[in-house]
Specification:
Layout: H1 2-5, H2 10-27, H3 32-39, H4 43-50, H5 58-68, H6 72-75, E1 103-105, H7 116-136, H8 154-167, H9 178-184, E2 188-192, E3 200-205, E4 210-216, H10 221-243, H11 258-270, H12 273-283, H13 292-302, H14 306-315, H15 321-338, H16 354-365, H17 373-382
Parallel strand pairs: 2-4
Antiparallel strand pairs: 1-3, 3-4
């Protein structure tokens, strides 16, 4: 091994080994102190190694390789990084590194595959996110349970939504900024450019019972919000299958496939029946008294599309069928004309990448400033994720 170590300049090798140890540790969700404990050294020397100020001895390199479950060639950045994916090959991608995948894609059968370029971009963003979490020393676990048993029919989904909203502390209330609510619950949400056919992508981080949800940046806010909650529903469908607790539908209650179940989850979550009825009752709107302008005004409170709100009113028997049919024709005509723009002047305002940006600002304040920040900034900028300077 000593001959191999001398085959290239030591400073360059120090940087490469430090970067690989840091990357593998973060993918496995280990703190620097925990990795030091597992290999039998103090946190100080481990920090020195990760800062590329000292090259680990051959014996320590072997211990690091054992703990990180890789070969020493991987730590020396000499081995291929390809790994066997945890997810089926048909998924087309997974979050992986030489340490092995730690988050699996949660997909629907008709989801388009990401191109190799898009996969690389997503993985780069994830590693940058993990790096910022590590630099800031924040918890990686979600603050709400991402596994809850339920039946995949409308009744079961209503119960699931009630439990999730209760865990978030909002009950049946309507919240203006669901994005901030979910990020405060520890979920990792990223808005970034994605291929035009990909509106959102979700991954389940089993090690921390957490999720990574990517939303296409160039969509209207209503679609972004619906996609965000739909993918959260997909996470619950995934963990339901993974951990069991699959309740059978009651007689007369037909089970929904994953796509329809996730969409129903989003509709029930964003438009709780009690909240919709309360909004209608407070205004004294009878089923036959709706106007198109009033529909657009009220739907804005819930942050959903006009079409979604119209369907919810129909489900709750709050709108007369002739008015529903007329409004639906008008909405669909507007969608065709504008390429699915929303037919109202006022829209929700989301603050994308809020938690990611906050982590970036905290990391920048560290003294001495972590040398990785320039690389993290370059990765996020290249991926089209703005977090400030």
């Amino acid at each position: 091994m000593n001959k191999r170590l001398k085959a290239e300049p030591v400073p360059d090798l120090k940087l490469r080994v430090a970067a690989r140890i840091r990357e593998l540790r973060r993918v496995q969700h280990l703190s620097q102190a925990e990795l030091a404990r597992r290999v039998g050294i103090r946190p100080g020397p481990m920090n020195v190694i990760e800062q590329a100020r000292h090259l680990p001895s051959g014996r320590l390199l072997c211990r690091l390789a054992d703990v990180l479950a890789v070969s020493t060639d991987v730590l020396l950045d000499r081995a291929p990084r390809a790994v066997a994916p945890t997810a089926p090959a048909s998924y087309g991608y997974t979050l992986a590194s030489a340490a092995g995948p730690r988050a699996v894609p949660v997909m629907f059968p008709d989801d388009p595959k990401l191109s190799p370029y898009a996969c690389d971009k997503v993985n780069a963003i994830v590693h940058a996110f993990f790096a910022l979490e590590d630099l800031c020393g924040v918890p990686k676990r979600a603050h709400i349970p991402l596994y809850l048993p339920f039946a995949a029919n409308e009744t079961g989904l209503e119960g699931l939504v009630a439990q999730v909203r209760q865990a978030l502390g909002i009950g049946q209330g309507v919240i203006f900024d669901y994005l901030e609510l979910l990020e405060n619950a520890g979920l990792r949400i990223v808005f970034c450019p994605l291929p035009s056919e990909v509106e959102s992508v979700a991954f389940y981080d089993e090690a921390n019972a957490n999720a990574l949800i990517f939303i296409r940046a160039r969509m209207n806010v209503e679609r972004q919000l619906f996609e965000l909650i739909k993918r959260l529903g997909a996470i619950y469908l995934h963990t339901r299958r993974q951990y069991g607790g699959v309740a059978a539908p009651r007689a007369g209650r037909e089970a929904l496939d994953d796509v329809h179940a996730a969409r129903k989850f989003a509709a029930l979550f964003l438009m709780p029946a009690a909240a919709v009825r309360a909004s209608v009752d407070q205004l004294g709107i009878a089923p036959g008294e709706w106007t198109y302008e009033l529909l657009l005004r009220i739907k804005h409170r819930f942050g959903v599309s006009a079409h979604s709100f119209l369907l919810r009113l129909e489900e709750l028997h709050l709108i007369a069928p002739p008015l529903k049919a007329d409004f639906q024709r008008r909405i669909e005509a507007y969608y065709r004309k504008t390429g699915y723009g929303e037919p109202d002047a006022s829209r929700r305002i989301l603050t994308p990448n809020g938690r990611l940006g906050d982590l970036w600002q905290v990391a920048r304040q560290r003294r001495p400033r972590p040398p990785e920040l320039k690389q993290i900034a370059r990765v996020l900028s290249t991926a089209g994720v703005g977090v400030g300077r």
